[in-house]
Amino acid sequence: MVSGYRLRIARSSGELAYSRFNDRGEVVASARLSESLNLSFIPVEPAGGPGLGLIECIYLKLSEPIVIDSNGRLDVKITAPVDYGVVAHSKGGSYSLVDSFPESSIPYKLALYGPPTQGVICRFHKVDLGKPQGPGLASLNVRVVNETEGVARVNTIIIPLGGVKVFYKPGTWVAVMSNASMVLESSNVASIHFDPEPVSADFDESPDIVKGDTHPMEYVVRGKGEFKMIWGY
Amino acid sequence: MVLEELLNYIGRYMHFLEAGVILLVSLLLAILASRYFRSKALTRFSVEIVNPISRFIFVAILFIGIVLALGQAGLDISSILVAGGLLAIAVGFAAQTTISSLLSGTLLYIDRPFKVGEAVSIGANMGVVEDVSIFSTRIRAFDGRLIRIPNEDVFRSTIINLSATRARRIEYQIPLPHDVDLNKAIDVVRRVVDNHPLVLVEPQPAIFVSQASVEAITLNVWVWVPGQRFFQVWTELLATLRGELMKEGIQLALPQRVIRVKTD
Q1: Of A61, A110, A120, which has the smallest distance from its Cβ to B198's Cβ?
Q2: Measured between alpha carbons, how far is B124 from B206 in angstroms, rounded to an integer?
Q3: Considering its fold, how many domains does chain B have in total?
Q4: How many Å apart are CA B223 and CA A22, to the nearest integer?
Q5: What is the pLDDT of residues A149-199, one digit of tens each?
Q6: CB contact under 8 A, B200 and A112
Q7: Over the stretch B34-54, which tens digit does the pLDDT of each residue have?
Q8: Residues of chain A whose C-beta is under 8 A from some C-beta in B?
Q9: Is B120 in contact with B126 (CB distance < 8 Å)?
Q10: What are A124-158's pLDDT values in tens digits?
Q11: Residue B240 and residue B182 share a domain
């Protein structure tokens, strides 16, 4: 049982049959796969669940604001949701996401970042600063740098799924996201940069689900791994 | 002597030679101008709009060239121009609607109020855009009918692009009887709204009393949902709201009329 679901992988006549059942015993996801594929069960970007196909970022609402002096910086350790992913790998190294679903103990909500006509749909998560990592959550280190001329107050951090990477410790559910830095450029605009390197040699990289090049925030990309929050923080 | 005769001969027919040159130059200009327009316009507009305009440019330049060439050749072109003008007026009247649709199609391409694949409401018609041609727009209604709307009508209609917004607001008006426990009703509605995974946290939902009439107290519920799932959430939430209110013993207000019987 994972997050209230029962998973079953059956092998029969040269194929693998994957099924996920809800608590009423109903099949909610299934797939037939070639026997030559390897299935792995790992943490992935939180793009699944009822908002599958809509989610482009993570909307982290801080339970208490971060207040930073002009030209100051502050390192915060926060958590962000990850989904349980079932990924099929071929021997050649290609992969396909078979199924993904969120942790049931974390409230599943979505939020819009930006105006209704142009904004982006995000997975919403309320962050309690200092709260330890739990199931379905990845830890995330964010360095907030205030380059504005005044004291800045940060209530929201947007993590674009097209830029962030999820890493996991093989054989465990311990997950971390790329180290990020958030540079406050003006009272409304901040840029988000991700460190492309793995956070530790012990961790493997989870496959990309939401590609950066299809991200609607692409137009605000200034460089690789950098996104802008143009609708406030 | 022979040279003089040759020069006289050429002089007599020089205007025909000049007319030929004008014709050739105009043909060359027509080809170059239409090709130049086509190469530039195709980067911004579709082939359906570019080709007719490109052909028009070619024919117009060539027509001017022919008229000038005929004038140079010594022919009286005034009668041709008058006939051409009359023909243009006749064609213009006959093809008024077509030309209007063509122009509207051109303006639609420039304005781009919708794209193929987007859900739209054009006047009284609603559906998914299947094709936008130079003369008409075809939309597939949600019941499967294919509707062809002349571009002239599209351009004049109110167009609502249902796909262009990332988020849309659903509004319900729930009529409740006057003796209702209003706080309980609001709590039930809030719980339903908060528990639906596709109701957005931002912008925040709003639940408020908007009206207290003789018949009912109207509870307004405004929630924002992803634009692509508007219909799904609208139907799910409506059914859940009704079910949960009923489960909590909260009835919807029925139409009522107070009648006072006056006795002597």
Answers
A1: A110
A2: 30
A3: 3
A4: 28
A5: 999 999 999 999 888 889 999 888 899 999 999 999 988 889 898 887 877
A6: yes
A7: 899 888 887 777 666 677 788
A8: 49-51, 53-54, 59, 61, 108-114, 116-121, 124
A9: yes
A10: 999 988 777 788 899 999 999 999 999 999 999 99
A11: yes
Is the ipTM higher than 0.90? The answer is: no
Phi–psi pair at A144, nearest 5 degrees? -95, 125
With CB atoms and an 8 Å threshold, state whether B166 touches A118: yes
Q: Is A110–B165 a contact, with Cβ atoms under 8 angstroms apart?
A: no
Q: Which of A7-16, A171-180, B243-252 has the lowest mean pLDDT?
A: A7-16
CATH for B156: 2.30.30.60
Same domain, B140 and B207: no
pTM of the model: 0.72
Tell me: pLDDT of A110 over 50.
Answer: yes
Question: Residue B197 is nearest to which of A61, A108, A114, comparing CB atoms?
Answer: A108
What H or E segment, with its residue span, contains residue A229?
strand A226-229
Structural domain including B130 reads 111-161
Spatial distance between the Cα atoms of A153 and A232, rounded to a whole number of angstroms = 10
**Helix, coil or strand: residue B11:** helix
Residues of B in contact with A59 (CB under 8 A): 201-202
Q: Alpha-carbon distance B98 to B150, whole Å? A: 9
B194 to chain A: closest CA residue = A109
Whether residue B100 lies inside any domain: the answer is: no
- Asked whether residue A159 is assigned to any structural domain, the reply reads yes
